[in-house]
Structures are given as C-alpha cells and as structure tokens.
Amino acid sequence: MSSSATPDKRPAWVTGAREGIPLLGGYVPVAISFGLIAVQSGFSAWEAIVISTLVYAGASQFLFVAMVAAGAPLWLVVVMTLLINARHVVYGPNIAPWLGRSRYWPWLMHGLTDQIFALSHVRLPQLPPQDRMGWYIGASLVAWFSWIGGTAIGAIAGKELTQRWPLVGEVMPFALPALFLVLLAPKFASRHWAMTLAATTTIALIFAIYGFKNAAIPIAALCGALVYYGLDRLARNRGRRNDEVNHG
Questions:
Q1: Does a structural domain hold residue 205?
Q2: Which residues of the chain have pLDDT under 50?
Q3: 55 exposure class (CB count in 10 Å sphere: 0-12, 13-18, 19+)
Q4: Which of 51, 136, 160, 248 matches a 20 to 30 Å C-alpha distance to 101?
C-alpha cells in the first residue's frame, strides 16, 4: 500500500477501490460462511443476500440468523444487533474530520466496517483533502460488493464447496480476524496504540472467556478508547510540565 498522495492521473475512487481489493481476502470467505449458515438456518438464498445488502454488519448477521432461527422475539434481536454494532459510535467520529461535510453521510456510513475504519484511519490522513471522499467511496464499495458476492456464493453453492473441500470450511472463519490484525499491525509502532490495543484485546478476551461474547466487542472498544484518551492526556501533561521546567 502506497503511503504517498494519490497520483493526479488516477481518480481518487479508483485508488480507493484498488487499495480495498486486499479486503476481499477476509470478506469473501466469511461472507460465504454467512450465506451457508443462513440457508442452513431456514433462510432462502435471496433472503441471505438481502440481509448482507441492507444489514451489512458481519457478526451481527450471524447473531441475527441464529436468533431468528431459534424463535427469539424481534425486539431482542434488534437490541442485540445494536449492542454489537455500538462500536460504530466510536468509528464514525474518528474518521468524520477527514471526510468533511456531506449530505450523503447516512449512505456513506452504511459502508463503514471494522476493516474500512482501520484502512481509512491509516490512509485518509495521507491523502489530499479533495481526494479523501472519493477514496472512501471506492474502498467502501469494493468491500460491500465483495460481502454481497461472498454471501451469494455461500447461499447458492456453499454446501457443495465445503463438501468437496472440507478444509475450506475450517479456514473461512479465521480469514477476517487475520485480515483485521494485518490492518492494525502498523499501529503497533506507536507506544500509545500498542498499549491501547493490548488493553482492548485483554478486556475482550476476559469477557469472552467468561461467556459474555456479545458484550466483549462494544465494552472492549469503549475501554480501549478510554485508555488511549488517558494515555494521550498523560503525555500532554508531561510535555506541558517539561516545557514549564525548561522555560521556567
């Protein structure tokens, strides 16, 4: 991935689409898994595709089909889906300053996923202001269509794929976490980010181990944000005191 500004000869959305292509390595296998599981849970192939098109929320979709198949009340399905997606309350404000104002924000945020957020957080600051919105749209569309396409493959041909190549079914669930770790890796170069990621991971693991898997992601994300904010405040206060000593 290039760290330089977008070349003038290439439209920003093309650059975003090109740099979003590596996401397919994580999105497509997991989307295939979702399509297969949705059909096995009693949904039709078209219903699975519509869910991926309109909901487009990864883990929430797996929870949605499982709860609906189990006969859970609609209000509980909605509450649990919103709880898992509460992390977007943190994502949106963090990239909003880089994209500026737009009347298309409600539509643009539909394309905000964990991986798009991680990629945007690295790339948007490196791009000229006039290219950022186009880049985001290109990357988001590639991710969205890959998720829809993977769901279609899983819903229509997922059973045949896993029967012919059983190893595929074992590997698919790990593709997206591995991709997300790769996207986060550059942040470990910063001590603040390394400590924040370590704290977030530890908290999520503790909640998951004790059986609170649905709450692990939003609570860990909130705690991670607080840890980073606290470390940033401490660093600023230390720098201010050093300046006072040096100029005192």
A1: yes
A2: 1-7
A3: middle
A4: 51
Asked whether residue 18 falls in the same domain as residue 125, the answer is yes
> 27 with 176: CB under 8 angstroms?
yes
The answer to whether residues 240 and 156 belong to one domain is: no
pLDDT at 1: 47
The set of residues, in sequence order, having a beta carbon less than 8 Å from that of 173 and lying 6+ positions away, is: 29, 30, 33
**Pairwise CA distance, residues 143 & 17, whole Å:** 9
Confidence (pLDDT) at 167: 64
Say yes or no: 96 and 196 in one domain: no
Last residue of a domain, one of 154, 170, 185: 185
Q: Domain range for residue 234?
A: 190-248
User: What digits encode the pLDDT tens for the residues 169-223?
Assistant: 666 656 556 655 655 666 666 777 788 888 888 988 898 888 887 677 778 878 8
Position 171 in a domain: yes
- Within a domain: 97: yes
